[in-house]
UniProtKB/TrEMBL annotation:
Domain of life according to the entry: Bacteria
Segment forming the signal sequence: none
PROSITE patterns named among the record's database cross-references: HTH_LYSR
Gene Ontology MF: a single term: transcription cis-regulatory region binding
Taxonomic source organism: Pseudomonas putida
Record-given protein name: LysR family transcriptional regulator
Gene3D superfamilies with a match to the protein in the record: 3.40.190.290, Winged helix-like DNA-binding domain superfamily/Winged helix DNA-binding domain
Recorded family membership: Belongs to the LysR transcriptional regulatory family.
HTH lysR-type domain: residues covered: 1-58
């Protein structure tokens, strides 16, 4: 069975379109059709139902999807392992939310280099939903996520509850409600629920920013306030560019550790989790259940 045929199958399933799958794979639509036809002939079963509204997986296609993802994942891992330097024995891949890249990556990589010197590490950052997709496809060993989406192919475990603090560019600020210049940072659903409780009637915000680093750059340049992680603002609090808002509601962001059922939880992966639980980001937070 051809790996490229499986890639075409997964892309069509994901996009619901032969045309979009062809664009993503940088091949012609007829090539995609030929690859799907070859798979269906090999399996002696239709994999897609075709209509003017697009294509959807048949019952057989749904059953085949997991196996196709597993085969591609195994192939890509095999390519990575074969390409490893001779002094490396395996790899561990970690996915992180974009707002936690700075607070986790350097400390975790350093820990892994000290405690697992023969394990190659791969770290990538993205939105939680996209990291979840990578996990489901077996392309990541583990990930830290904001949103606890309960999907069959993913195991979720509570990881850490991280306090967030409201800071402002104005000195001697005392909390007096949802003020002008406030920037809403999207920390996920649980934060949004806390925020709605703390600030009733303010579900719409004049300025919402997804990435914490961009929000920080904005308020340092234009003034304002926002809820930040301690890691992001500690230096600016120390040098007086930012100030804690006294009396502000205490909010937090919960993160979850996620594993794919398509990837065996190897000793290296368990060691990677130990590393995550040893760095300051984890030891300075608090666990939850």
């Amino acid at each position: 069975m051809n790996i490229e045929h499986l890639r075409a199958f997964i892309e069509v399933a994901a996009s619901g379109s032969f045309h979009k799958a062809a664009e993503r794979l940088h091949i012609t639509q007829s090539s995609v059709s030929a690859r799907i036809k070859a798979l269906e002939e090999r399996l002696n079963r239709p994999l897609f139902s075709r209509s003017r509204h697009g294509v959807t997986l048949t019952s057989g296609g749904n059953l085949f999807y997991r196996h196709a993802v597993s085969v591609i994942s195994a192939w890509e891992r095999a390519q990575q392992d074969v390409a490893l330097p001779t002094d490396m024995r395996s790899t561990v891949s970690l996915g992180l939310p974009m707002n936690h890249w700075g607070s986790i990556t350097a400390d975790w990589v350093e820990w892994m280099e000290q405690h697992q010197p023969r394990v190659a590490t791969q770290v990538q950052s993205d939105y939680s939903i996209l990291l979840m997709n990578e996990l489901r496809e077996g392309l990541l060993d583990l990930a830290i996520l904001y949103e606890p989406h309960h999907w069959p192919d993913v195991i979720l475990e509570p990881f850490l509850e991280e306090p967030l603090q409201l800071v402002s560019t104005q000195a001697d600020t005392v909390f007096a409600g949802h003020g002008e210049g406030y920037v809403y940072i999207s920390w996920g659903r649980s934060f949004s629920e806390q925020h709605n409780d703390a600030f009733p009637g303010t579900r719409r915000h004049r300025l919402s920013i997804t990435q914490e680093t961009i929000a920080l750059e904005y308020i340092l340049k234009h003034g304002g306030s926002a809820y930040f992680s301690q890691f992001m603002v500690k230096e600016h609090l120390a040098d007086g560019r930012l100030h804690t808002v006294a009396g502000a509601p205490e909010l937090s962001v919960r993160t979850y550790l996620a594993f794919s059922t398509l990837r065996e939880r190897s000793p290296e992966t368990l060691k990677a989790v130990e590393g995550l639980q040893s760095i300051p980001f984890y030891t300075q937070g608090k666990s939850f259940s």
